[in-house]
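Exercise 7.
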Amino acid sequence: MLKSLREPLVGDIELYKVIDPSRSTGSFSAVAGSVGYIPPEYAYTMRVTMAGNVYSFGVILLELLTGKDAVTNGTELVKWVLRNSAKKDHILDFHVSRTSQAVRNQMLAILKVALACVSSSPEARPKMKSVLRMILNAR
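Solution. The predicted structure, written as tokens, is:
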């Protein structure tokens, strides 16, 4: 996902290998990524993983569902969503909440997928193949 032709918002280790092949181990000495998209475990492992990519994808889903940025006024979207998870209709973008019940139900199903993707435990996050299946089943 690109902000501009030269500024990626989210990428994975494979993309990073193309950009800088000398760092193909998946380990970085400096923070790589954008605040709000970086999984919590990155702070102590400094390793880019597939589970981390799933986390970043979950953040993107949350952005689409809420209409909010990954970080707003210093508050991470994931933390805001988790604090408000009991009020699921409150989490959804106002425009979504004014649509049909069928659309709201689909959005709530995708919200469940997003919440699984942003689990604080990397091991608890689904694989992307499972994420795809869950999204397709939400239709």
